[in-house]
Write a structure and sequence with these properties.
- The complex is a heterodimer of chains A (about 600) and B (about 325).
- Chain A is about 30% helix and about 20% strand.
- Chain A has about 600 residues and is of the alpha+beta class.
- Chain A has four domains: about 70 residues, no CATH class; about 130 residues, Dipeptide-binding Protein, domain 1; about 110 residues, Periplasmic binding protein-like II (D-Maltodextrin-Binding Protein, domain 2, 3-Layer(aba) Sandwich), CATH 3.40.190; about 230 residues, Dipeptide-binding Protein, Domain 3 (Dipeptide-binding Protein, domain 3), CATH 3.10.105.10.
- Chain A has a four-stranded mixed beta sheet.
- In chain A, β6 and β7 form a beta hairpin.
- In chain A, α10 packs antiparallel against α13.
- The longest helix of chain A has 18 residues.
- Chain A is globular.
- Chain B has about 325 residues and is mainly α.
- In chain B, α10 packs antiparallel against α11.
- The radius of gyration of chain B is 24 Å and the shape is globular.
- Classes of the chains: A alpha+beta (about 600), B mainly alpha (about 325).
- Chains A and B meet through β8, β9, β10, α8 and α15 of A and α2, α3, α5, α7 and α8 of B.
Chain lengths: ~600, ~325
């Protein structure tokens, strides 16, 4: 008699084995029993007992000596081990004239800015412990800690902050534009510094920390240097959690935890950044274990790593670009509000996301802000207004004076001037990366051309960025693909303001909107700002200068068998300086 | 006579260099777009106009074009090739540093490919129609047809990743951060890039040598040598090879110059910090002064290589006398 259970048992064992192999091995920090990546004193005590029991009393289990050492390092917050990060360009390595070439706090582990930004638009103090502003937002006061030192042991004082501002301006360094509204910076005492601005600056901490932000440099070193752009810095003295150790030009550099750091010591002792210019190579070295962290992966690449043993992948919602169909509001037929409103119902976001990458994109059904970034700043009343409904679109086109006719079996839309509507869409610039614009236009053609009768012509200007920028001001429709953080705050709605400098990308000019933006710029109170932001979003929903399509996620990968704590920190934001300061070694392998 | 010829060549080359500099200057400035703005958008996303203005002034972009040209030309003659936007260092410094690393892989690859190409091409041409010739010819055609990027990636995958015989990239191990650069370590890292560059260039040398040998093999003096009773290998070594190699002199000189920019793929795949990767990075961030400097250097190398080829020729073939008027 055939035992029917046997094949079933075999299959079950195979399934378990298969699943076990496929589930990526993820290391916990030795001694950490509650999974918070921190080894408390109680947990360490338990681990020590386990070790002694196993070593001397013939018991089983327990950590070995090396693992126990790692656990103790965690409890006492003593930096341990080394992490190797892959970078893709030499611009990501230390440049000799760093003070001019760089300056973004979150991109640097050596130099700090006063604050760094988190994903929920909060700020973590780096050099600054606290800050406050005047009621009118023109004065910002920052407090730096007593006892903070530069990596050469000299004290960090308010004078260094003042110097950094003066130096940036005087020498015209690349980041000097960041502080264009700052008229002066004055020290109140050794640990207090005040920025005076020529206008209300409700988001001043943002300006200091992102796009690109500014860092603070030591006065006692740089005051003697006449031309910083031509100065090769051999020591890179900063105030950050890591200090410079050594570098190999064009290949790698090493930092180590600065033991006298004024803030929380990093858990990792050494950080090495090594250049691997091709993403394919970066994946190979990650798999081989030569590198512990790679970032900005293509979605398909990241997905291929998800089943790899010992590798973790983090998907950051809207960490990539946010795409939209943008109108040039003074070019026919986009200058007709009814036309724009009608087309807002003819954008099939789900299909577009499917074309781009359904697992890495999220349709955006707001008027501009990306919900996962802007949070409760999004006006709920303006959500979901641009539903995909071609019949509605046709009716609204008819109401706007457009006529849909059938000629030779094809739909042809005639405008109020009784000529067929033809739209030229230039392709290029940021939306062209990974050919996203081509995928969007493919879907648009299906609906706008075939159903609505709008002739679509495509101009490929991917090789000529300047021609593209010029062309988008001449055509009724173009695509935009700005970074996600350009859609994360109501202050970003100033993209639609017609400023004294001239037109915005959309050639949108609404007097009420313009006035509200001015009011927003001069409003400090969060509640009042939100009320203005809500009004602004209502105007956008009515005027439709653009139709958001989707946001794209970004992907990072790391050795989950060696480090713990990446996921939450990456999602929190704050860049490398936040991540690398707080991740915990989870394997004794990192002690290399 | 030779000295006079050399002087004349140098003068003509200087004029050619000057014309190249002018053409490059004009073309790069005719390119649409403002490169300062494009570069700053890599930092600011939307470059503030006042910062663009400051940088235009710092880099002299706001001066009249003719002013810029003369400053640039004089600067080149004085060794000032401008300032790299992304490195914030003199262009010549950046290029010199990278050129060294390119030569580390380029010179061995070129020498090996020349020796191998000549040897295999000569043998293949001499044994035309034989099984060896057919196999070699088809092998080289196949090798030539493989896309260079794909070939480099496959070599990396097989030898560095799956077999683990060589490192996956860079030019030194992480130990160099502690103990300094070890030449043997560099050699270990250079092995795969050299091998890849060798494969890219050996086919061209092979074809040329084979064709040259096919023409030489039919010459009367070869028939005479055979009639004298010399064996095949002696005829090949003493008569055929030397004559067949003459076209190779020019080829080799131009190959050295050409491989400099052709190494972009190899250097990018293997993360080798040479001129190729520098060019790629400069293009990515639109560092125009740096790109300009790289093109200038390429021009200089081609000119020097051509002069070098002319000067070497008389040593290879004593019948050739450079500088002699062709008329009697």
């Amino acid at each position: 008699m055939i035992d029917r259970r046997k094949p079933g048992i075999i299959l079950l064992c195979c399934a378990v084995f298969f699943l076990a192999c496929c589930v990526p091995a993820s290391a916990a920090v030795p001694g950490d029993t509650d999974g918070d990546t921190l080894v408390s004193e109680g947990e360490l005590s338990t681990a020590i007992q386990g070790y002694l029991n196993a070593t001397y009393a013939g018991g089983s289990g327990g950590l070995d000596r090396a693992a126990l050492s790692l656990a103790a390092h965690n409890t006492l917050n003593i930096p341990y081990g080394q992490i190797v990060v892959a970078v893709s360009g030499e611009r990501d390595l230390l440049q000799p004239a760093y003070i001019d070439a760089k300056g973004v706090p979150e991109g640097s582990l050596i130099y700090e800015g006063l604050v760094t930004r988190t994903r929920d638009k909060g700020h973590i103090g780096w050099l600054a412990t606290s800050w406050e502003s005047s009621a009118d937002g023109t004065t910002w006061t920052f407090h730096i800690p007593e006892g903070a030192t530069w990596h050469d042991g000299e004290p960090v004082t308010a004078s260094d902050v003042v110097f950094s501002y003066d130096y940036l301006k005087e020498k015209g360094l690349k980041n000097s534009g960041v502080l264009k509204h700052v008229t002066s910076v004055e020290p109140l005492d050794d640990t207090t510094v005040v920025y005076y601005c020529d206008c209300c600056m409700p988001l001043f901490p943002d300006i200091l920390s992102t796009g690109p932000g500014v860092a603070i440099f030591p006065e006692h070193i740089w005051s003697a240097i006449e031309n910083p752009a031509k100065q090769s810095d051999p020591e890179y003295i900063g105030s950050g959690p890591f200090k410079y150790v050594s570098s190999v030009s064009g290949d790698s550099y090493k930092l180590e935890a600065y033991r006298n750091y004024h803030g929380t010591l990093p858990y990792v002792d050494k950080v090495v950044r090594k250049l691997y210019s091709s993403q394919d190579t970066q994946i190979l070295v990650l798999k081989q274990g030569k590198v512990d962290y790679v970032y900005d992966l293509a979605p398909a690449t990241a997905r291929s790593l998800q089943s790899e043993k010992g590798i973790g992948v983090t998907q950051i919602p809207a960490g990539g670009k946010a795409y939209e169909v943008a109108f040039t509001c003074d070019v026919y037929p986009a200058n007709i509000t009814g036309f724009r409103q009608a087309l807002s119902h003819a954008v099939n976001r789900d299909r577009m996301c499917g074309q781009i990458d359904s697992l890495a994109t999220e349709p955006t059904d707001t008027v501009f802000l990306v919900p996962s970034l802007a949070g409760d700043q999004v006006n709920e009343d303006t959500n979901g207004l641009y539903d995909y409904d071609l019949d509605k679109a046709k009716k609204m086109l008819a109401d706007a004076g457009f006529t849909l006719k059938t000629e030779g079996g094809k739909n042809v839309l005639y405008g109020p001037d009784n000529t067929p509507v033809t739209i030229t869409i230039p392709l290029g610039d940021k939306a062209s990366i990974n050919k996203v614009d081509e995928k969007i236009v493919l879907v648009l053609k299906e609906d706008w051309d075939a159903e609505l009768g709008i002739r679509i012509e495509v101009e490929n200007l991917q090789a000529d960025s300047s021609a593209y920028k010029k062309r988008i001001g001449e055509t009724a429709v173009h695509f935009d693909g700005m970074p996600g953080f350009f859609h994360d705050d109501i202050s970003r709605l100033d993209n639609f303001q017609k400023s004294p400098r001239g037109h915005n990308y959309y050639h949108f000019d609404n007097a009420t909107f313009n006035d509200l933006i001015d009011e927003l710029s001069n409003t400090m109170d969060a509640v009042e700002r939100q009320a203005i932001g809500d009004e602004l979003q209502v105007i956008l929903s009515e005027q439709v200068p653009c139709i958001p399509v989707c946001s794209m996620d970004s992907f990072n990968a790391y050795r989950s068998d060696r480090f713990a704590g990446f996921d939450d920190l990456i999602l929190e934001g704050g860049g490398d300086i936040n991540i690398l300061s707080h991740i915990k070694p989870a394997s004794t392998e990192v002690n290399r | 006579m030779r000295a006079a010829y050399l002087l004349r060549r140098l003068l003509y080359s200087a004029v050619a260099f000057g014309i190249s500099v002018t053409i490059m200057f004009v073309i790069l400035r005719l390119m649409p777009g403002d490169y300062i703005t494009l570069y700053l958008e890599g930092i600011y996303v939307i470059a503030p106009p006042e910062v663009v203005q400051a940088y235009n002034h710092a880099y002299g972009i706001d001066r009249p074009l003719i002013d810029q040209y003369f400053s640039y030309f004089l600067g080149i003659l004085q060794g000032d090739w401008g300032y790299s936007l992304s490195y914030s260092r003199p262009v010549l410094d950046v290029i010199s540093e990278k050129l060294v690393w390119t030569l580390v892989i380029l010179l061995p690859a070129t020498i090996l490919s020349i020796i191998a190409g000549i040897a295999i091409g000569a043998y293949s041409g001499w044994r035309r129609g034989s099984k060896a010739d057919v196999a070699l010819l088809n092998g080289m055609i196949f090798l030539r047809a493989i896309p260079s990027y794909w070939l480099a990636l496959m070599i990396l995958l097989v030898f560095a990743f799956y077999l683990g015989l060589f490192p996956l990239g860079g030019y030194v191990s992480l130990s160099a951060l502690d103990t300094g650069i070890d030449p043997l370590d560099v050699l270990n890292h250079a092995a795969l890039p050299i091998f890849t560059l060798f494969l890219f260039s050996v086919t061209g040398t092979y074809y040329l040598m084979r064709n040259s040998m096919l023409m030489t093999a039919g010459e009367d003096y070869i028939v005479t040598a055979r009639a004298k009773g010399l064996d095949d290998m002696t005829i090949l070594r003493r008569h055929a090879l030397k004559n067949a190699m003459l076209p190779m002199v020019t080829r080799v000189a131009l190959q050295c110059a050409g491989m400099l920019t052709g190494s972009i793929f190899v250097e990018t795949i293997f993360s080798w910090p040479g001129i190729g990767m520098l060019t790629f990075e400069a293009l990515q961030v639109r560092d125009l002064p740096l790109l300009q400097g790289i093109l200038l250097m390429d021009t200089l190398i081609v000119i020097v290589a051509n002069i070098g080829a002319d000067m070497i020729y008389p040593f290879v073939d004593p019948r050739v006398e450079v500088g002699n008027d062709a008329r009697a």
